[in-house]
Amino acid sequence: MGGLFEKFVNRMPPKCRNELTLWYFSHIAIPLVGYVGPKIVEVTDTRVVIKVKLRRHTINHLKSMYFGALCTAADVAGGLVAMNYIAKTGKKVHLSFKNFHADFIKRAEGDTLFTNDQGDEILRFIDRAIESGERMEMPVHVVATVPDKFGNEPVAKFTLTVSVKCKS
Fold this sequence. Notes:
This protein is an alpha+beta fold. The chain has one domain: Hotdog Thioesterase (Thiol Ester Dehydrase, Chain A). Helices cover 42% and strands 31% of the residues. It has a 6-stranded antiparallel beta sheet. A hairpin with a 4-residue loop joins β1 and β2. α4 crosses α5.
C-alpha cells in the first residue's frame, strides 16, 4: 500500500483502517487470505485477535480446521499490528516472515481465535529497525484457541520470525 491510498487510509478511524487493511491483503495482495476469511475481533497497539470460522473453505477431512487455514490466520494475527504501525510511520518499511514454526496441540473443531499480545514489543522493534536502517528480525508468537470447545486452552501455538528493513 503506498502513496495516496496510504494517506487516505491513515486518515480513517482505526477500526475502518484495520478492516480496509485486511480487505486489501485478502483481495488484492494475498488472495489466499481472503479465501480463508479471517475477521478482526480486536486490534489495538498491544493486541490482535483474529477469528476464522470452521466452514467449507477451512475444514479438513477430520472435521477440524485445516492446518493451512490455521497458518494463514496466524500470519494475519502476527503481522497486522506491524503493518498498521508501519503505515502510520509514513516510512517505506518492507515486512516479511523469515520462518514459521507451529505446534498443533489439539484439533481445532470450531471457530478459532488467533491472538498476538506482543504489540508493544513489535512497535519498539519497528522503531529500532527504522532508526538502524538495517534488516532486523523478531519472533512473534500467536496462540490459537477454540473458546466454544476448549475455553482459553490453546489448540495451536505459532512462532513467526518477522523481518523488517527500512528503505530510504
